[in-house]
Amino acid sequence: MESVLRNTRVTLEMIKWEHSIFALPFALTATVLAAGGWPSLPKLCWIVWCMVMARSAAMGFNRWADAEIDAKNPRTKMRAIPAGQLSRGFVLAFTLVAAGLFIAGAAMLNHLTLLLSPVALLVVLAYSYMKRVTRWSHLVLGLALGIAPAAAWIAVRGSLDLRIVLLTAIVLLWVGGFDVLYACQDYEHDVRVGLNSIPAAFGLNGAFWIARIMHLTMAVLLFVFLHLFGLGTIALGGMCAVVLLLVYEHAIISPSDLRRMNAAFFTLNGVISMVFFASIAVDLLMHRG
Question: Does 1 have pLDDT greater than 60?
Fold first, then answer.
């Protein structure tokens, strides 16, 4: 029992389950938009279930695939597998179980979600190998999180609306931009070992400018998104707050000072996703009322 509890604790730490807050609010936004309010409780629970299981599978697979790379990086060498806390076999088994539970959850939603579940898994798992292939792997991570709102829409409606694809693009640019910034911490390591990343390809200054362009484009698309769904003043206020938070995120770090990266990456991005969801949900529910 003690071993089981230890492995459970280490596994939860490994997959950073609390960081589900990044993508989940965007999926919930698509859920309330598709339903015109709150969907039924069982549907909502299965959507959350699928989100958590897909992310758990993706994180487990990433740690399994990157174990040797993590062991050589001073920032990541204390992760569960390199540190000897979990075996690669255990992590792979965990990944397979999470993937199976994701597909099972998709089957509880509708036929289309079940058919598309292997495609969704392929996208979220493929990211783990992209750094070996392309400097633009940050955008693949963005896509992995960005498909969440489109998937949630399909879960509610059983079909896809092209308007919600714009939210996929917004999340892709948001995640891609902050992942570029986060990767600046590994600039020297990536250059030394030959891993692909935007900081390694363009330097720290170039990486910061690329992240700024991504987030500026995202900010413009936010207001297009509001227009397409006919959302009102509360949602508009929320989008303005999101833009200001993005500006602040870029203000507290720089190519020469990455000390506040965790605050920019974890705290601010968690707040951004929650503000985004809350403002749209309140606007929609008040308008409906």
Answer: no
